[in-house]
Design a protein that fits this description.
Length: 443
């Protein structure tokens, strides 16, 4: 952490402004050298400054602000230069800071330094990326709650209770003449069950967390020419997929994300399912079946304009939620009169408000259903919590069986370690690279 790092902290490409960020013990000295000895603004005050090249020519003029450690994002001295947003000028300013002694930052290195310097726990560090990636209001709300430390505090409370129970058990190890009597054992079991229930509550949010971060894998499924691509285009609000009356137009999967009442739907348009001798179309149909097998939701679409006899029932694998959609309601054949299903028209847009309501209710994941579960664990948290719960189950069983207290203490230590890894309380060096490598440069 001795090096002073630098990176472009604004999105890539051309824009009105760009931000260059430095962090490290030499940040102020490097910034002073590139503005040719002019005084830096007082900490947390903005000043107009120019960045010069080695020959004394101005590269760019912009606003410069300093943050003195530890009262900064990273806990170190930080400098931010906001200049013009051209690609060339931004790159040249960055190169000038490197020439002056800064080292290019790696992905997530600023946030990693914030974690290492105690500015945030590991759950908050992960929430930074969730906040940047949020595509819906619910995802944004969840990320903000986690960034505020709610998940970290909950895990620390669980860990504190487990630490107390562990100390109690290890006291019996230190004094072997004292056995754990049944009454004390039951009190310990009750305390451990309470923490196990809290862990179960966090684990229950894992599926919601995956959906908020990745979206609901929603496969549009049906025979050729029933309106799958038209449904995709109508939900997106623009023409993304080619629509043609010729069968087999869609041969590959098309994937897009749409915000539906606060929930990201990862819409996947697939090739129509039918018997085909075309090898390329056959491969597309095989991909369709693969997508259905991995789906969270399958929108099974059928064509009301053809007779019911021509429209065979479509079966999908067990597991995924299914919503039957009957398209071309404006051209409905009389044979469909008794068939239940959500009637829509991709041509006119009729029925699409009902479709949105039906999807939200089927998933039970809209704002109303979300309730207070605004923090949802991710896959890493889930793995840690699952390990902790398994260790607690073994510890409770050990206490009930009257096993040696060393066995119970070992299981409790494993649970403590697993819960501590979530917020990075224990030595978590091996997981830092995996987490922060997913960040963008400059964050």
């Amino acid at each position: 952490m001795s090096e002073t790092i630098v990176a472009i902290a604004s999105p890539p490409g051309m824009g009105a402004v760009s931000v260059i960020r430095l962090s490290g013990s030499c940040a102020f000295e490097i910034a002073t050298s590139v503005i040719k000895g002019k005084r830096l603004p007082e900490p947390r005050r903005v000043g107009l400054r120019s960045v010069y090249d080695n020959a004394g020519r101005v590269i760019d003029e912009g606003l410069l602000i300093t943050f003195e450690g530890p009262g900064s994002y990273t806990g170190e001295n930080v400098v931010e230069f906001t200049g013009h947003g051209g690609i060339m000028v931004t790159r040249r300013v960055l190169e000038r800071f490197v020439e002056a002694g800064a080292t290019p930052a790696g992905p997530g290195e600023f946030t990693q330094r914030a974690f290492m310097n105690g500015q945030m726990d590991l759950t908050q560090a992960e929430a930074v990326m969730d906040l940047i990636s949020a595509q819906t209001s619910l995802a944004l709300r969840s990320a903000n709650e986690q960034l505020d430390g709610r998940l970290g505090r909950t895990c620390e409370e669980i860990r504190a209770k487990l630490l107390g129970a562990t100390a109690h058990v290890e006291a019996f190890i230190d004094f072997p003449e004292e056995d754990i009597d049944p009454e004390v054992g039951e009190v310990l079991c009750k305390a451990l069950r309470e923490q196990s229930n809290l862990i179960a509550g966090l684990l229950a949010t894992a599926d919601q967390g995956r959906i908020l971060r990745e979206g609901v894998r929603t496969v549009i499924f049906g025979k050729p020419n029933v309106g799958k691509s038209s449904l995709l285009n109508r939900l997106l609000g623009y023409q993304r997929a080619i629509v043609n009356s010729r069968e087999g137009t869609t041969r590959d999967t098309i994937e897009e994300v749409v915000n539906l009442r606060g929930i990201p739907l990862r819409l996947i348009d697939t090739a129509g399912v039918r018997e085909s001798s075309d090898e390329i179309e056959q491969e597309g149909i095989a991909m369709t079946h693969g997508q259905v097998a991995r789906a969270d939701l399958v929108l099974v679409i059928r064509d009301l304009s053809e007779s019911l006899a021509e429209s065979a029932e479509i079966n999908i694998p067990d597991g995924a939620r299914r919503l039957d959609i009957l398209n071309k309601s404006d051209l409905e054949d009389a044979s469909w009169a008794e068939v239940r299903g959500l009637r829509i028209s991709c041509e006119s847009g009729d029925g699409f408000e009902d479709l949105e309501i039906a999807i939200a209710e089927l998933l039970s994941l809209d704002e109303a259903h979300w309730g207070d579960h605004s923090v949802a664990v991710n896959a890493r948290h889930q793995a840690c919590l699952t390990r902790a719960q398994a260790s607690l189950s073994r510890a409770i069983a050990s206490l009930k069986a009257g096993d040696e207290p060393e066995l119970t203490a070992l299981d409790l230590r494993e649970a403590l370690t697993a819960v501590g890894e979530i917020a990075g309380i224990v030595d978590a060096e091996e997981i830092l690279g995996e987490i922060f490598n997913n960040f963008c440069i400059g964050k």
